[in-house]
């Protein structure tokens, strides 16, 4: 398989203090790391693309490590998500290659994270934006942590590139009050509840 050719990495961190209501005791931090790489399959149909997932694993781990550092350590992380934005000469399936390398990298660094890492992917042009879904790291049904973070770069992805994204958060949405399973009530048996 071809090497991963990295053009750039971008890091973004948001700190949210309130959404119009009272200021909570603790702010919410959301962070994203975006890697823009050359799409080795751009412009052609390649039947066997799965081996490229192995090539992406070191990049996924490096990105996850950056996120943990940005947010103050693995013990601070409560939510996560991943995404891929594929340039116009690629196909949606190329973004699906990010599922395992991106998801497993985050779960490897976050002890006990049982929930599937939510994801999205799309084909888009330079400057396209993408909403990355976020859920709780241990139980997908924790409604307070259903969130998203919009990401994008003004010069990516070029037609022959992919932008791979990992997102982590330090908590629930500010002012969450939609009910459902509370993080304190997670049983941790199946990644759902």
Radius of gyration, CA atoms, in whole angstroms: 17 Å
- Measured as a percent range, the helix fraction is 10-25%
Order of helices and strands: EEHEHHEEEE
CATH class: Alpha Beta
CATH fold name: 60s Ribosomal Protein L30, Chain: A
Structural class: alpha+beta
Number of beta-strand segments = 7
The CATH architecture designation is 2-Layer Sandwich
Main sheet properties: 7 strands, mixed
User: How much strand?
Assistant: 25-35%
Oligomer: single chain
**Average pLDDT level:** 95
Shape: globular
Distance between the termini: 39 Å
Report the total helices: 3
Runs in which pLDDT lies below 50 for 5 or more consecutive residues are: none
Number of domains: 1
CATH superfamily: BB2672
Tell me what the structure shows:
- This protein is of the alpha+beta class.
- Helix content is 18%, strand content 30%.
- The chain has a single domain (6-185), classed as 60s Ribosomal Protein L30, Chain: A, CATH 3.30.1330.110.
- Strands 1, 2, 3, 4, 5, 6 and 7 form a 7-stranded mixed beta sheet that branches.
- The mean pLDDT is 95.
């Amino acid at each position: 398989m071809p090497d991963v050719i990295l053009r750039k990495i971008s890091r973004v961190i948001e700190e949210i203090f309130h959404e119009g209501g009272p200021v909570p005791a603790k702010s919410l931090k959301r962070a994203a790391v975006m890697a823009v790489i050359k799409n080795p399959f751009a412009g052609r149909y390649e039947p066997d693309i799965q081996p490229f997932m192995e090539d992406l694993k070191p990049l996924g781990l490096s990105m996850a490590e950056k996120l943990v550092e940005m947010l103050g350590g693995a013990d601070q992380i409560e939510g996560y998500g991943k995404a891929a934005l594929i340039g116009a000469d690629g196909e949606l399936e190329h973004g699906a290659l990010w599922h395992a390398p991106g998801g497993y990298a985050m779960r490897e660094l976050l002890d006990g994270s049982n929930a599937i890492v939510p994801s999205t992917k799309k084909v888009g042009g330079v400057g396209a934006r993408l909403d990355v879904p976020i859920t709780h790291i241990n139980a997908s049904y924790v409604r307070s942590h259903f969130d998203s973070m919009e990401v994008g770069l003004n010069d990516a992805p070029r037609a022959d590139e992919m932008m791979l994204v990992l997102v982590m958060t330090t908590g629930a949405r500010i002012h969450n009050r939609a009910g459902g399973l509370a993080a304190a009530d997670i049983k941790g048996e199946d990644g759902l509840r």
